[in-house]
């Protein structure tokens, strides 16, 4: 017999303190900044720089980094399409909890499949899912190669590496795109500034 709970016997329990009250306390709106892009495109750099900028401004955020989560919550997952889908699904659900807590959740994962990112977006029907595409050319990311993984992938020592022998599907309708201007990569501070401007313009950085 299945050990899974029967959904018919599982009920939602409402608590007296709700999201709006928590947001008022924090003077901000709970949301997720979802950073997607190739390995080496600058996802973690932007996540950290944005976290610092928000902290300086008095906004509470928390970074969920793909690499870090694979040491714990997602340590049983690999890089097959199915495992990546499950990885993104779990982080989407955790992001939803953080946003419900009133925090600005910064999720930084390759998240190569459009359908997986769109499934996360669907968890946030109130437009509080802000997708940020690190639109950096493969040659730049591969040239950086801070962990030496592209080199291993090129020599066949890692199979199924995103951008080399595994797909990356760029967003079609993201909220923010970070890219080079005249061949120059924006600084981490400039990248964070672009996201902060977007959030400020839409009122996320104060309570409703
Ligand atoms: N096969 C393969 N493909 C892509 N990336 C690989 C792979 N194997 C290991 N790594 C390392 O894992 C990091 C990506 O983890 P994510 O959880 O963000 O990946 S995914 O969203 O599930 O695709 C990624 O981190 P970043 O470089 O920060 O993107 C790599 O360091
Ligand atoms: N805007 C930037 N300007 C200069 N170097 C950067 C920038 N963004 C990332 N880097 C560098 O590129 C490398 C990869 O960045 P990282 O944030 O780890 O990428 P990802 O998380 O997408 O794998 C790191 O060595 C980082 O210092």
TrEMBL record:
Catalytic activity: adenosine 5'-phosphosulfate + ATP = 3'-phosphoadenylyl sulfate + ADP + H(+)
E.C. number(s) listed in UniProt: 2.7.1.25
One GO term (biological process): hydrogen sulfide biosynthetic process
Recorded GO MF terms: adenylylsulfate kinase activity; ATP binding
A GO term from the CC aspect: cytoplasm
Catalytic EC class: transferase
Residue intervals of the APS kinase domain: 29-178
Keyword annotations of the record: Amino-acid biosynthesis, ATP-binding, Cysteine biosynthesis, Kinase, Nucleotide-binding, Transferase
This protein's pathway: Sulfur metabolism; hydrogen sulfide biosynthesis; sulfite from sulfate: step 2/3
Signal peptide positions (record): none
A family per Pfam: APS_kinase
Family under the similarity heading: Belongs to the APS kinase family.
HAMAP family listed in its UniProt record: Adenylyl_sulf_kinase (MF_00065)
PANTHER family per UniProt: BIFUNCTIONAL 3'-PHOSPHOADENOSINE 5'-PHOSPHOSULFATE SYNTHASE (PTHR11055), PAPS SYNTHETASE, ISOFORM D (PTHR11055:SF1)
Name recorded for this polypeptide: Adenylyl-sulfate kinase
Organism for this UniProt entry: Nicotiana tabacum
